[in-house]
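Give me structure tokens for this 153-residue protein.
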Amino acid sequence: MQLEIRPDPAEVGRARKWARSRLAGSGIEDDESLAETLILLVSELVTNAVVHTGCPAVLRLSLPSGAAESATVRLEVADRSDRAPVPRCVDGEQTGGRGLALVDGLADRWGWSPEGAGKRIWCELDRCAQSREAAAACGGGASAYEGLAFEAV
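Here you go.
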């Protein structure tokens, strides 16, 4: 399933609402930590696409069908900018510039690849029967990029 995103900051809220509406049929409850994390990741990746590219984008979600205790959720944002995400350090006083560092800390896996004239940034979350704190066996863990911030430019 996918949603077309216009290069407008109001699209971030629309993307969150759209993603929440897709969770119900997948067996992921609104109050489940996976849902909360997924909505935050949608916010971060769509914000990056809207703010840093100025181009339309496409948000894609791949959700498990049914209430599987162990499944992978994949989120992708494809945009028409060929500019790669570039790591940058931010001052503790700055209010922005931490989006992809947050994605790195929350997602089990993430990355990006060129796609046509643009790029695709993706992340995956593993749904485990255990709590997120005990999810280290599912790939969760400390970020290797702690203290860095990334900007999709």
